[in-house]
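User: Structure please.
Assistant: Input sequence and predicted structure:
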Amino acid sequence: MELTNPSPAPAALRGTLAQGVDHWKPRVQALAQEVHAFKEISFEEVRSAGAIAALLEEAGFEVERGTSGLPTAFSASAGSGELTVALCVEYDALPDIGHACGHNLIAGASVAAALALLPLVDQLGITLKAIGTPAEEHGGGKALMLERGAFDGVGLALMVHPVQDGLTYNPTGTSAQAVGRYKATFTGKAAHAAAAPHQGVNAADAAVLSQVAIGLLRQQIPSDHRVACFVAEAGHVTNIIPEKAVVQFECRAFTLPEYEALHQRVRNCFEGAALATGTTLVIEEAEPLYEPLLQDDALAAHWTDAMGAFGKDTSRSSGLSGGSTDMGNISQVIPSLHPWLSIPGADVPIHSHAFAALADTPGAYGVMFEAAVALAWTAAAAASTPTERDRFIKAAYRRRTFTQEGTS
């Protein structure tokens, strides 16, 4: 890989990192292709996690499997420096359509960056962790791992995420929405649909009314808010009044106060539907809340400088981006970077069959390796810049613990 425009990391070190990525290219590309073919969904990524952990262990990392009590999570560690750098590795796919979010490329970029940094951990004075984080699409793997201690002591966290072609590589000022996902269950009363319909309480009607209310609500919410839902259950045969209906729904907004306000308005739609139909309603949280994403400006500057060396568009973005990630939870408490990786020729939306196919192309793997170099550069530059290094060491994450005396 030929690089231009020096970054804050010394030129010789940058060249060494690029050579390290080049050295591991065949193995890492084969790994990313393997993960793409596995198509394993949240919390079922047994083969993907196993293959990634095995390669890191072979390279010299000390690997812990089943981290945080999650069978498909892992943590691979090397070095003993005061600054702990985490590279997040994602590998879950979407149901039915596979890697339509390009998590095979996320895995490949983070793994290649970790392998390139491995010989330099003592020189950089870092403890390096490649943390396998399952269930990003649904389940909040990172939120669970953060809560259970997998990120304790981490001073900065990095990863990339594929997107369509044409987006800037400058992540400064970009974000991702908070998202909460829920299950609303209406309970009515079954009855014969022909002989005694008047004796029934139709839960399916409540599901319909809630969707109508949400549809009307959409015209009264800000344009960057999102609500989505689908009926998971609403009866099974035509001659029984449905006594149970289940609606899965989610709410998204760019700040937590906006999210909470939107969530309450959507709950009101369900409560109104229950009142109108005479059903009872229970709303349960389906998975952990994903918090808004915060990009660290210093890390963004190193990344942008590195991608500029590859001739990428690094102009400032217009601002916020859509979608959500459990990396947001990490970024709320640890300085983090989650930049965007444009797949060449990808003019189709993510979460589509077409995008899944494009995530397994030579062009996609080409930018994956450029991103790996940029991730490694970003970590090395942060570790090599005294003022930044000190800030990240002081920012090392420490979970709050609760005792009888209070919070510690």
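The first strand starts at residue 62 and ends at 65.
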